[in-house]
Design a protein that fits this description.
The complex is a heterodimer of chains A (273) and B (254).
Chain A: H1 8-33, H2 37-57, H3 61-82, H4 87-108, H5 116-120, H6 129-158, H7 160-165, H8 170-192, H9 197-200, H10 203-211, H11 215-240, H12 244-272
Chain B: E1 4-13, E2 16-26, E3 31-35, H1 42-50, E4 57-62, E5 74-77, H2 91-96, H3 111-123, H4 139-151, E6 157-161, H5 169-182, E7 187-191, H6 195-201, E8 204-209, E9 211-216, H7 233-242
Parallel strand pairs in B: 3-7, 3-8, 5-6, 6-7
Antiparallel strand pairs in B: 1-2, 1-4, 8-9
Helix pairs in contact in B: 3-4, 4-5
Classes of the chains: A mainly alpha (273), B alpha/beta (254).
Chain lengths: 273, 254
């Protein structure tokens, strides 16, 4: 088992797994407590438009996806702040149109047949050094923002009406959360792919929420749990030659079911006593 | 100097007049109850006082300033305190949201802010629960925490919107007893449907249904005998308008 560690692509995959797990743990916590899971799903799929754009014009995939996803996040922030009704309809629209743009642009790219599957289901075994810098940089930015504005983000997430009364700029922080979600989604696509990214942003977070007293501890637990699932999934996918993204999600899903069972048993034991 | 001074306030929303020619003075140490039907404009008046909505006609002054300039002098307890019960947040963190966000450290909270929040929790008798998760409290306890959050900035006036809407009867009485106690040092304004409870505690009542009618209860006999300990608005208005004339009292149908 240890011999797999000598390969550079495995080393990169492990570092990427840890970086993305903590980024998605922190941002996923914000997405879950702000009830933005569907919004994050919309951003994830819209970012495929950015992948198509990057392929068509020949610039880096991460850059294209990031710009497109941030654009989608800003658009959704604008719409949701303006008009709280029909949010789900708008998210659905942006979701589908973004993906359609991506597929058509890739069709139009002459002589280039990009591996669609690697974006749908991730390619953690093909992480380059540049990808790692991008992921590390993003995690650093997220940690700095969360440290400096923790109390504002906490107030906006818990009770935005009251935060507004305390002269906190609610639209700014709401938009900030969405933009950080967009960037996190883009790096998570590399690990588990855009179809499965929502699972990475919710399963470890759901478990962590039950174990935490504070938003900060929820973020840290999410990161740790997510790292465990990601590395275990990576190990299994390497040993049994399975698609890495799908294996990571299956491990997470089974972990969640086991957590449910243990939770019920503990509750049952407490009620008997 | 009145705490809140409202003169000739008229407010319309989409050309529909919600509030018309409101005049109201809230004096120091008043316990004012604002009652009235749903859609009568109670919440709108609160929003105007809190500076959430902007008015065009008339005048609102809080301690002789525009509402938005005196945020820290007004403590506000919103209506629905059962939001986000699953949210991973400690009681003390909820209370510290009350601090207005200026002069703050780069990371976390200042020591004074923490001791101030603990003081506010002690005022409402919840200091033992500071480290508990907010979702583990009962409705009444959570409401106390929200009151502590409003007390955090040492406000001159405490404004509560339906403070007992989601609390059982025993809890309601405790909340009003607490408000009575706080009223010794702080002015209180409560919006409520719950007239039976209000009557024992409020010193003044304003009824709002587009227009305002205002009653000073401090000289009114409030132990109005009723069998089921429940007043309805009709009875209250009868009592206020006709003083001690008991012959007009009819059975409550609401």
């Amino acid at each position: 088992m240890l011999d797999m560690l000598q390969y550079e692509f495995i080393q990169n995959a492990i570092i990427a797994g840890v970086l993305v797990s903590f980024a998605s743990g922190i941002i996923g916590s914000l997405i879950v407590v702000n009830r933005m899971v569907f919004l994050a799903g919309g951003i994830a799929h819209t970012s495929y438009g950015g992948i198509g754009l990057a392929v068509y014009f020949g610039f880096p995939i991460f850059l294209g996806a990031s710009i497109f996803a941030c654009g989608a996040a800003l658009l959704m922030a604008f719409i949701t702040l303006k008009n709280r009704n029909r949010i789900d309809t708008f998210i659905g629209l942006i979701w589908a149109i973004g993906m359609a743009i991506g597929i058509i642009l890739i069709d139009l790219t002459p002589g280039y047949n990009v591996d669609l599957m690697s974006y749908l289901f991730g390619s953690i075994l093909a992480v380059s050094d540049e990808d790692l810098y991008f992921m590390g940089g993003l995690l650093f930015v997220i940690v700095v923002i969360m440290s400096v504005w923790y109390r504002d983000i906490l107030a906006v997430s818990y009770d935005s009406e009251y935060a507004n009364l305390r002269s906190i700029n609610v639209p700014f922080f709401y938009t900030l959360i969405l933009v950080l979600s967009a960037l996190t989604v883009v790096v998570a696509i590399k690990v588990v792919g855009l179809i499965l990214v929502i699972a990475l942003l919710t399963i470890p977070i759901y478990i962590a929420e039950k174990l935490s007293n504070t938003l900060a501890s929820m973020m840290v637990y999410s990161g740790i749990i997510s790292t465990f699932f990601t590395l275990l999934g990576l190990l299994l996918s390497y040993n049994y030659d399975l698609t890495s993204g799908a294996t990571i999600i299956m491990v997470s899903g089974i972990g969640l079911i086991l957590f449910f069972i243990v939770q019920q048993l503990v509750q049952y034991k407490n009620s008997v006593q | 100097m009145p705490i809140i001074e409202i003169k000739n306030l008229t407010f319309a929303y989409h050309k529909q007049i919600i509030l018309e020619d409101i005049n109201l003075n809230v004096e120091k140490n008043d316990f004012l109850a604002i009652i009235g039907p749903n859609g009568g404009g109670k919440s709108t008046l609160l929003k105007l006082i809190l500076g959430i909505e902007n008015y065009k006609n008339g005048m609102i002054k809080i301690l002789e300033q525009e509402p938005s300039k005196n945020l820290s002098k007004v403590g506000y307890v919103p209506q629905n305190t059962n939001i986000n019960i699953d949210f991973p947040i400690k009681v003390i963190e909820v209370v510290m949201m009350g601090h207005v966000g200026h002069k703050r450290p780069l990371f976390g909270y200042k020591k004074e802010e923490i001791s101030c929040a603990m003081g506010a929790l002690a005022q409402v008798g919840m200091e033992k629960f500071a480290q508990n998760k907010i979702g583990s409290l009962s409705g009444g306890q959570r409401q106390r925490v929200m009151i502590a959050r409003a007390l955090c900035t040492h406000p001159e006036i405490l404004i509560l919107d339906e403070p007992t809407a989601s609390i059982d009867v025993a809890g309601q009485k405790q909340i009003y007893d607490l408000l009575k106690l706080l009223n010794k040092t702080i002015t209180i304004l409560v919006v409520s449907h719950d007239i039976s409870v209000i009557l024992g505690y409020a010193s003044k009542v304003a009824h709002i249904n587009k227009n305002i009618s205002y009653h000073d209860l401090s000289n009114t006999k409030t132990n109005f005998d009723n069998k089921d300990e429940h007043f309805c608005e009709v009875e209250l208005l009868q009592m206020l308008n006709q003083g001690s004339d008991k012959s007009t009292k009819k059975g409550c149908s609401c």
